[in-house]
Q: What sequence folds into this?
């Protein structure tokens, strides 16, 4: 086998978004030698695209807010299949994680009292999203990046990890390649933290970048980790629709948080239609447009507009409006914030203003936006322990979007960023504790040799399949069969297409050299995308009910039986074995929070 | 279907040349879409960085018709005027890796030399700051690290004085830290000496190319130049300025 670099760290973090960098800071501060791998350049991870804010019950504006209310909102938004303990930790620790960012140089927008500004968001009872205009993710990643550099880390930029290395049932390192040269690299570590983000790239209309191909979930799956609730894919209600070049690009929920109104092609404010009001949310939202208008200036004495229902609810409503023939010219609905005035919009939503102005020829201060749901986030992922983020595979930890537990069937806006910080830190600490007790282990060369051969196969293959075109076919199949409204028939057809594409992927062929060759990189990514797609579709078929993001039109209601089940997928040779795990039962004192409400 | 002609630089450190491609167009198309179409349908070895395709990550920096631009924010219709080909080259200021990808690691190395935000000993927790006191530094914090300003800066581009000037991006980072109401470090020596703010001769090219519309020269570089020129030898004035900024 060709020569390659072998490096060694106490802890290897795969992924340098919010969760990965927060884990680096935790482990580095504890004095461990940390290596971090990013698929792109440092600071370009998907976290940078987060816009609206980071949830954390600081109660700077609404004094009644508390971690308990954040806890209730999150469990309810997730339709109660969340891990209650993870949600409790999220709600309790988010405020401290936000304040700590400020001590590291983050500069949030301010309240009149000089504290961190908070805005309302879907499913959150109070103004709870700490933010910087509509570029909160950029603030987060730059702050963490600077801090991580200061704490000390070795950063491997533009390295793709292809395999986790196992010794005696334990994860002891990883193997991959430098994108720049195509050379291989082996990284030995006592513990590995997966912080690789989600997998929205399987769909045609997506707000995700090329990176989101599910590498982390496949790496974990391949070494026996449990993937949980993989059917739960979030369709963000508001993606750009027109022109085609920007289709799927995210329009922040912050637009609705700042008063944005949804209207169908006929001009009707359809979110007021009682048919869209889900059980459990009645009486919590404005029932007239007048009350919604008053809420803009007096949030204490008026209820928020129904545009601020959780994302799964709003996305379904938009889908149904368009299906019923009430869509706009380009098949979406209108999102209108013009009534807030140009100064306000440019101050609160500057990047939305710029995005529509530069890419869509729309001035959002005078014209409504056209929007339609876009793939945004994956609630499912590697099952991880709430306290330490440990997975079921020794030595392997998972935090952030790649992990599963905290969001249940639907994530509330703003909860992704606090998830990254709370569990990034916990993963760093959990891995530190594990690494300190772990004995050194050798890397098994046969695993690396096997992986190297698999990586290089498309260069030598006599096949003719183009990785780009294959991934486009996959995206079309998933968009058709596994989107927002699902049926057994559509999912079945989609699964057959995915399996056929997996067959064809054996014949992938790429040209050129290993020097920064995107065709070669895509050949690897598409295999991960195909595996994850298969798992998503199989789990969506299995869950015969509607809950959160999983909307089965052939089983349109939640099933009380399924309220107690998480779906788990594990590798069984070439087959995906699907089982269930009981949803952990909330202790009496937390359950009582919901009793009191009734 | 209408098409557009692109002439894209292909090559690596050993040399290269422009190659011509015909690409079908669609409404709203950006130059990055054209590059993606070439990769998918004509040549999958064409190297190009990108991530968000929404002007938020600063990955797809290149030079279009000689101007530093983000490929994802450059509309095809604005560059293919009168049927002329769109010419796409890599950033000139940094060493070429392949095609449109350059080695921008120097920027990360320089950035790492700048000590991070260090709160003053008397900084409260949580921090109390008025919006008006952070407006200016929030402008600097919009930077997406696309390095277009570094690319266009003639000190770096034409004179390759990377040894004596950190470049506009890092001056903005220093300005952000220096103007933070609660930063406790005295950064004047670094601004003046290692970062070399005096080297800049205010041609404002950096401001012109900034996709975030940061007023790099007027709001960042010029105030820092004044700061180290006027106050460098006058510690009393420095203290006075720090205090006056408390609001």
A:
């Amino acid at each position: 086998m060709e020569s390659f670099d072998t490096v060694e760290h106490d802890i290897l973090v795969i992924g340098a978004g919010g969760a990965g960098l927060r884990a680096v800071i935790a482990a580095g501060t504890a004095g461990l030698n940390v290596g971090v791998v990013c698929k792109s350049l440092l600071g370009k991870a998907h976290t940078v695209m987060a816009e609206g804010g980071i949830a954390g019950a600081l109660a700077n504006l609404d004094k009644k807010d508390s971690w308990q209310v954040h806890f209730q909102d999150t469990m309810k938004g997730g339709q109660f299949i969340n891990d209650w303990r993870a949600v409790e930790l999220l709600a309790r620790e988010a405020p401290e994680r936000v304040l700590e960012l400020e001590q590291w140089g983050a500069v949030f927008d301010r309240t009149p009292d000089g504290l961190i500004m908070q805005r309302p968001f879907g499913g959150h009872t109070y103004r709870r999203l700490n933010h910087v205009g509509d570029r909160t993710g950029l603030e987060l990643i730059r702050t963490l990046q600077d801090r991580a550099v200061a704490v000390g880390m070795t950063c491997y930029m533009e390295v793709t990890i292809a395999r986790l290395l196992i010794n005696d049932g334990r994860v002891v390192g990883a193997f991959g390649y430098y994108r720049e040269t195509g050379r291989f690299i082996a990284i030995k570590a006592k513990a590995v933290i997966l912080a690789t983000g989600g997998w929205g790239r399987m769909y045609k209309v997506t707000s995700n970048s090329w990176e989101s191909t599910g590498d982390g979930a496949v790496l974990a799956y391949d070494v026996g980790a449990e993937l949980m609730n993989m059917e739960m894919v979030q369709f963000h209600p508001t993606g750009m629709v027109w022109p085609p070049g920007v289709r799927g690009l995210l329009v922040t929920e912050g637009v609705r948080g700042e008063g944005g109104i949804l209207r169908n092609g006929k001009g009707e404010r359809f979110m007021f239609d009682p048919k869209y009001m889900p059980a459990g949310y009645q009486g919590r939202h404005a029932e007239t447009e007048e009350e919604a208008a008053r809420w803009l200036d007096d949030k204490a004495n008026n209820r928020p507009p129904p545009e601020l229902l959780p994302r799964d609810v709003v996305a379904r409503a938009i889908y149904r409006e368009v299906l019923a023939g009430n869509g706009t010219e380009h098949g979406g609905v209108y999102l209108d914030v013009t009534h807030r005035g140009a100064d306000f919009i440019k101050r609160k939503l500057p990047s939305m203003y710029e995005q529509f102005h530069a890419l869509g020829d729309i001035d959002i201060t005078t014209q409504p936006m056209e929007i339609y749901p876009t793939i945004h986030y994956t609630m499912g992922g590697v099952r991880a322990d709430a306290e330490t983020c440990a997975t079921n595979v020794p030595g392997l930890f998972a935090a952030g979007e790649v992990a599963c537990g905290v969001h249940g069937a639907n994530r509330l806006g703003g909860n992704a960023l606090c998830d990254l910080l709370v569990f990034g830190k916990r993963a760093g600490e959990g891995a530190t504790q594990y690494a300190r007790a772990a004995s050194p282990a050798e890397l098994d060369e046969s695993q690396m040799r096997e992986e190297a051969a698999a990586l290089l196969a498309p260069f030598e293959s006599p096949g003719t399949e183009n990785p780009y075109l294959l991934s486009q076919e996959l995206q079309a199949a998933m968009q058709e069969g596994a989107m927002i409204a699902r049926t057994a028939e559509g999912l079945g057809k989609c699964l057959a297409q995915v399996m056929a594409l997996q067959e064809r992927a054996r014949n992938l062929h790429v040209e050129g050299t290993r020097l920064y060759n995107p065709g070669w990189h895509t050949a690897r990514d598409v295999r991960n995308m195909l595996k994850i797609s298969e798992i998503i579709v199989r789990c969506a078929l299995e869950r015969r009910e509607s809950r959160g993001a999983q909307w089965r039109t052939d089983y349109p209601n939640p099933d009380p039986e399924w309220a107690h089940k998480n779906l788990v997928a594990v590798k069984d040779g070439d087959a995906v074995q699907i089982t269930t795990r009981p949803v952990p039962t909330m202790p009496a004192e937390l359950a009582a929070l919901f009793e009191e409400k009734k | 279907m209408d098409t557009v002609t692109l002439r894209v630089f292909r090559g690596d450190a050993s040399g290269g040349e422009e190659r011509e491609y015909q690409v079908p167009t669609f409404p709203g198309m950006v130059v990055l879409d054209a590059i993606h179409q070439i990769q998918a349908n004509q040549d999958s070895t064409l190297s190009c960085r990108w991530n968000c395709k929404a002007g938020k990550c600063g990955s797809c920096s290149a030079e279009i018709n000689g101007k530093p631009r983000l490929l994802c924010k450059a509309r095809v219709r604005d560059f293919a005027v009168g049927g002329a080909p769109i010419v796409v080259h890599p950033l000139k200021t940094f060493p070429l890796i392949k095609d449109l990808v350059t080695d921008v690691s120097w920027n990360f190395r320089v950035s790492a030399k700048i000590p991070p935000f260090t709160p003053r000993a008397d900084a409260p927790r949580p921090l109390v700051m008025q919006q008006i006191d952070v407006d200016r530094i929030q402008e600097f914090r919009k930077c997406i690290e696309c390095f277009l300003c570094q690319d266009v800066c003639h000190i770096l581009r034409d004179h390759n004085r990377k040894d004596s000037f950190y470049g506009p991006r890092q001056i903005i980072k220093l300005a952000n830290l220096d103007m933070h109401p609660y930063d406790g470090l005295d950064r004047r020596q670094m601004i003046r000496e290692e970062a070399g703010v005096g080297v800049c001769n205010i041609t404002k090219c950096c401001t012109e190319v900034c996709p975030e519309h940061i007023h790099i020269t007027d709001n960042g570089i010029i105030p820092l130049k004044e700061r180290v020129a006027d106050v460098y030898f006058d510690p009393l004035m420095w203290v006075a300025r720090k205090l006056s900024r408390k609001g």
Q: What stands out?
A: Chain B touches chain A through 60 residues (CB under 8 Å). Chain B has a mean pLDDT of 94.
